[in-house]
Amino acid sequence: xxxxxxxxxxxxxxxxxxxxxxxxxxxxxxxxxxxxxxxxxxxxxxxxxxxxxxxxxxxxxxxxxxxxxxxxxxxxxxxxxxxxxxxxxxxxxxxxxxxxxxxxxxxxxxxxxxxxxxxxxxxxxxxxxxxxxxxxxxxxxxxxxxxxxxxxxxxxxxxxxxxxxxxxxxxxxxxxxxxxxxxxxxxxxxxxxxxxxxxxxxxxxxxxxxxxxxxxxxxxxxxxxxxxxxxxxxxxxxxxxxxxxxxxxxxxxxxxxxxxxxxxxxxxxxxxxxxxxxxxxxxxxxxxxxxxxxxxxxxxxxxxxxxxxxxxxxxxxxxxxxxxxxxxxxxxxxxxxxxxxxxxxxxxxxxxxx
Length: 354
Prior knowledge:
This protein is 42% helix and 25% strand. By secondary structure, the protein is an alpha+beta fold. A hairpin with a 5-residue loop joins strand 1 (24-28) and strand 2.
């Protein structure tokens, strides 16, 4: 934890930064009472004097549907003792207008008590732009879905019609196969875009049921095993049962396995494990590839974040796969993460309440 009042000089610098910052700053206690605020914070909420907001609770300026965000921040900082926590929420100005905010809090101690130093940045404009972009992506993806699906069906039919022994050149067969693969990739990209917009707007429902991990692993791994190039090892009890949306958990595991194949192509052994730890199932996909840089690990599950491929120095894909995985697991009440050291492979894992 930090203590801005440890020395008089640092205390003076802290006060100057606090008061003159163009971003809203406030100090709160563990009950979310506003103890101090700068003028940027006062004006952000549409008031004229500090006295109008100091002594109130931040929840007093928060719509009911967003108050859970502050409860999460409260829990993360004071219950879990996190040194820093950030989230996006919304506040109501004095005139009733809603503003979207990026909230970041850190803990510090003063006279033996722990407080939260919080910055609040107005990101309403960025939020509106993001909504407009999401709406465009959603409409464009839906419009593309029908013709691409039709094209894929025609190419698949054409490929099946090419019977062995017929007078068809190898070049035509090869071009047809390439077209099928290209359209398949395009369909996957469209599905990712549609999934992202649905997740953002809370339009994805979970159809939960009981199923065995072993059944799921068998389905998820077939496409890799059939290549004959990779050995997929399962570690754990295949009869372990969980209560979740089987299709969406399958989507997560397939994505993690595909990532192992894509970013660790020379790691011919991929290990998938399932453990029951204190009534929580932890599923891990581990490869022995080149590993992931620490700077990338911090953002892997962010939307549109793409890792640069070392061989080509280019960014691959749309950067949506892991973001979608993280959202699916979050909606199940679980956690997702990665453990990796550069040069020593990567272990992507997620947990699910049994």
